[in-house]
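To assess whether the prediction recovers the assembly geometry, we first specified each molecular entity separately, as shown.
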Amino acid sequence: MSKRTVELELATPGLDDRGQPVRVPLGVADAPDSTLPEPDLAGEHMLINLGPQHPATHGVLRLVVELDGETVVRVIPHLGYLHSGFEKLGEYRHYNQIIPLTDRTDYLSPMANNVGFALAAEKLMGIEITPRCTVLRVIACEMSRIISHMVWLGTTSIDLGAFTPFLWAFQERERIYNLQEMWTGARLTTSVTRVGGMMADIPDDFVTGLREFTQTFPRTLSEIDRVLTRNAVWVGRTQGVGALTAAEAINHSLSGPMLRASGVPYDVRKDKPYLDYETYDFDVVVGEHGDVYDRYLVRLEECSQSNRILQQALVRLPDGPVNVADPRVILPPKSRAMNDMEAMIYHFKQVMEGVKAPVGEAYVGIENPKGELGNYLVSDGTAKPVRWRIRPPSFINLSALSRMAEGHLLSDLIAINASVDIVMGEVDR
Amino acid sequence: MNPTVDALRATFGNAIGRGLESCGDTIVYVARESLLDAMTWLRDTPQQGYDYLVDVTAVEYRDRERPLELVYQLRSLPRGAELRVKVELDPRGDLTVDSIVPLWRGADWLERETFDMFGVTFRGHPDLRRILMWETYAEGYPLRKDFPLRGRFSRAEQVRQALAANPADMRERLRRGERGKLPHSE
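The predicted structure of the complete assembly is given in tokenized form:
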């Protein structure tokens, strides 16, 4: 069966030959000649353009979709509308100066990105962080996971027509943002880590605030669960849609909830533990069918597992210093830098020259909310990396979109695209 | 060091270059011609079982004498082992290697990004187009070390080109295969 693809001219109607604006004809005078036979469109495909300015593409993603009736034949994603060249910028910056760039990649979980980069830089420099810093970073990562999954849940439910969970999810996210603001002074661009420590210790009320959050958050989760999990519309729109088998998910290099929903129990926190995650008691959530519904279940359950980790972290949070006691890496306090000659020299050298890393390279993957966020740093011995590579989880997860959407309806494409959980700041970087 | 390096050398002989360790990760250099065979062997040999492709990228050093390196990060999910495979290319010579998309579909966009940012051509890739930059982008490859941070064209030149661009002309240029080439280089 030969199919002909109709290519639509996407040009904007502008001026005609005489320079007059072209008008769209109104009324019946220009109706098609009814004596002509109806064109046969049965065998034709249609190309439609979705995005880059479209609320259901979760950012500036543009999809060119080839349709046979309402069935998706092909999806061609076009990226790069938010490309900022972070990796290139990183080659011109000191290690600590790169941390603000990491906020802006996956801006729905900025603290986890900060942690990922700091871990890679510390592995490269061979720095061992303090016990208090380790627990604080776990708290930062798990708070990020909850807010990122809350945004995902809210926006996806809106895409599929459920408005109420969106409001609940964003209320919870707001509470975490208040805690982040308390800690760092910023809600979104936190830049909370430094190489060898954190930018600040947590303030006095933080532990109380976070404990209150962990006690009340499960109630919201169970409300969302009650509204969505057995909802006929939700189940009908998501079950059996965009399914990937375990072998396909591995072959497409998927990671995070996308991989686990397909039944692969791989979680970086368990399989290549960092920040002492192996000492926390939590479960790796694994799906069965790999469809949109299972991805929803995995993310919802991950929120309660993150809550468990937060509770354990609050219990074990040790006292002690946050930063390593190495004046070559950590800036001395301003009062010392102003009064002590040696501290001033270290302060000057760090600000002017930066922290030098030995020759070598390091890759650290951490379990970000979107999947495995890798930071790959190559150093030639100077204070600026030769190469800073982000392994962007949502970029790689998005590359399976065409495979998942082909053969489904156009409306399912929206559900599948939402289930990937992309954030364009990270996809385009 | 990861025992896979010795097993690779026993199978492929001289095609396997030096193996070294950096920050606990094992790195092994593979000759460009044997890349696809070595990757197939790493994935399909049961004792190795590197079934998961973590990342594909490239590194160009500030030292102009050093070769450009292609970096493949592999992982075996059942064994939990990791291996970093590197291929050295002459940055001023032919930047062509075999694509590994036939082995891992996940390499599709990663190779496209490496092509987009470094100008490495992957032979056998089903759809090698620029991915982050637009298809008619003519300033070169942004992550190469000879590419200035601010780009090659001035803001005025970029505006001039954007105003002069028209879809028919772009379509014609794409049809002729003018992708990722500097306008005056050839």
